[in-house]
Amino acid sequence: MKRKVSIIGTGNVGATLCLYLAQQELCDITLIDINKDVAYGKALDIMQAGAILGFGTNIVTGDDYSLVKDSDVVVVTAGFPRQPGMDRLDLLHKNRDIIDMSGEAIKKFAPNSIVIVVTNPVDVMTYRMWQVTGFSENRVMGQAGVLDTGRLIMFLSEELNISPKDIDGLVLSGHGDTMLPIFDLTRVKGIPVKALIKEDRLREIEKKTQNGGGQIVSLLKTSAYYAPAAATFVMVKAILNDEKRVIAASCKPNGEYGLSDVYIGLPTIIGKNGIEEILKIELEEEDLKKLVESAKVYKNSISEL
Prior knowledge:
The chain is an alpha/beta fold. It contains 9 helices and 14 strands. 43% of the residues lie in helices and 18% in strands. The protein is globular, with a radius of gyration of 19 Å. The chain starts with a strand and ends with a helix.
């Protein structure tokens, strides 16, 4: 039986994710947008690309949230994008109502689905989605750590003038200014990155990673989409194929790292059941302190929902 992935929101991220999924012929796809003509137009464009490049994926479109019915995975990308000078937390109240509408529909029509939230501020919106759906926490996650880790790896590859394929990194904490590259666990073909790059340069790369999205917003005057869609694709694929991938995702810890009642980026194992485990790794005292402080920021934001 063909798997079904529904994407709520057919802006740049949602449409690009649809393209990535369609190219791999992993599942049937449903695109939902308040502007049904835009959803249909993008689906037609992707299907015509398939006719040229040699892939054929069924794509259904519409503006009715009930179209999520029987989805295996629902990805929520709908929301207002960041504008220049706007922090992710500035979007809090603008996007809360969108999450509420999406969550109620998912709860009603796709009660067995796994939900991936991309809407910013993603850690807070993922918590809201968990509240609205009432799903178990393993079935509601946010996309952030894959994207942030990808940005870190790209900056490191530029610094070292090597292929990003040979770098293994990890970025935890919130998807914002408090994101936390874990340099102690970052390796280049097994070589600790700290043996290759001086501390002051690593701190500069950390700042570049934290501002990776903001830099793109300042250049494009809207949010990034190729890399966020790629990061979401990795998560969807891990669920559909039960890959048991180790992925940094926004998740709800239950005491891990001394955290609870918050969604924040931690290392997880993702498979057919969603977040199957939150991995407990030893962090340097300073990194753990930063992680806890970041969680406090998001808890304060949750209290304002």
